[in-house]
């Protein structure tokens, strides 16, 4: 069956477009675009570089018309006569100031009108005389400024020469005493604790490898966001309880902040347990069926009594609706024979291996 063309709709659209065009022309004609205009003669007492027919005319910064004619004055070729056409409502007076302004650094010049209080006689259109030097371009102004600078330099050439000579004497003195100055600066640097910083030593947390056979696997998608922790634990430094500095740990750094390090190594542990169903970070996986939310309570070396590495986590498993389906506390500690970086990291590796194994077994049972 042949489709019928919507002639009425097309005709209505065409009529609406025609009415809109006529309305725009009417608005333009009655808001100063092509409304009533009055012409005035303007005389510039010098060159007007860059001024062209069609250039804008501004009154107190508002565009009111344009230049319609340009020519040399027949009685004096140094003068330039121009005709401007402006909106009739513009309050142009016999003593209105006329100038030439350059818009922008390299913009097109425009004629500027400003002020005026003397009303011309009825029927008489005054000839506006531009201020002397109104046509001076920015380039010429820059040349004049440089010429004045050059004059100042010439007038003060003697003192300038003496100043340069004094600078040379001062620099020669510095060159002769370079060794002493270097010694002074080195002493100041050492006194204020400066100098080349010691190289930091980075330690990583080892991912446990032997987590037993994957008797049960994750039956739903699981995400492990970055664990939460108090501000003290958002660090790469080794933490002690009681606090304080310990010899040998000044240059110690974990491979990442403690929460991010625990997140990364726990995901690695899940992969070692069952790579096919391992969880990912929330940003990698997107919406997951469940999330394993961790809060790090302790990750430190305790030195009260027998030295030991302590890790304490609070774990919750929540579903898509934010409902907690399981929660528990998991803690582990490992005795330290010696409080030094290598032994401390080994103790944390052993404690984390027990934490990861217990956490994985509990999670796969709950999900």
TrEMBL record:
Domain of life: Bacteria
Residue stretches spanning the membrane: 7-28
Keyword annotations from UniProtKB, A to Z: Membrane, Transmembrane, Transmembrane helix
Domain ABC-type transport auxiliary lipoprotein component: 203-358
UniProt-listed InterPro entries: ABC_trans_aux (IPR005586), Mce/MlaD (IPR003399)
Keyword hit for Transmembrane: yes
Protein name in the entry: Phospholipid/cholesterol/gamma-HCH transport system substrate-binding protein
Species in which this protein is naturally found: Bradyrhizobium yuanmingense
């Amino acid at each position: 069956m042949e489709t019928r063309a919507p002639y009425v709709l097309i005709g209505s659209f065409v009529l609406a477009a025609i009415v809109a065009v006529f309305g725009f022309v009417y608005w333009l004609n009655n808001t100063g675009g092509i409304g009533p205009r009055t012409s005035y003669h303007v005389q510039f007492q010098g060159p007007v570089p860059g001024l062209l027919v069609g250039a804008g005319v501004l009154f107190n910064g508002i565009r009111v018309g344009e230049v319609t004619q340009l020519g040399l004055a027949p009685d004096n070729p140094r003068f330039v006569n121009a005709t401007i056409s402006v909106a009739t409502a513009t309050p142009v007076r016999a003593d209105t100031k006329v100038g030439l302004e350059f818009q922008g650094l390299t913009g097109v010049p425009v004629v500027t009108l400003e002020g005026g209080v003397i009303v011309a006689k009825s029927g008489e259109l005054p000839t506006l005389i531009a201020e002397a030097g109104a046509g001076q371009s920015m380039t010429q102004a820059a040349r004049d400024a440089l010429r004045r600078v050059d004059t100042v330099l010439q007038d003060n050439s003697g003192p300038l020469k003496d100043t340069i000579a004094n600078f040379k004497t001062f620099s020669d003195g510095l060159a002769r005493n370079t060794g002493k100055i270097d010694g002074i600066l080195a002493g100041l640097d050492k006194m204020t604790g400066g100098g080349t910083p010691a190289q930091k030593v980075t330690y990583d947390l080892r991912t446990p490898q032997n987590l037993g056979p994957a008797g049960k696997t994750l039956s739903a998608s699981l995400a492990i966001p970055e664990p939460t922790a108090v501000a003290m634990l958002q660090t790469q430094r080794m933490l002690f309880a009681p606090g304080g500095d310990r010899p040998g740990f000044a240059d110690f750094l974990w491979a990442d902040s403690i929460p991010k390090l625990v997140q990364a190594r726990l995901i690695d542990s899940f992969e070692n347990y069952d790579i096919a169903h391992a969880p990912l970070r929330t940003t990698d996986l997107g919406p997951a069926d469940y999330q394993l939310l961790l809060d790090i309570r302790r990750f430190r070396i305790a030195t009260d009594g027998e030295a030991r590495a302590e890790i304490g986590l609070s774990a919750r498993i929540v579903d898509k609706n934010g409902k907690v389906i399981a929660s528990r506390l998991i803690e582990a500690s490992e005795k330290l024979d010696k409080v030094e970086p290598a032994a401390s990291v080994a103790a944390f590796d052993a404690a984390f291996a027990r934490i990861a194994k217990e956490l994985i077994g509990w999670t796969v049972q709950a999900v």
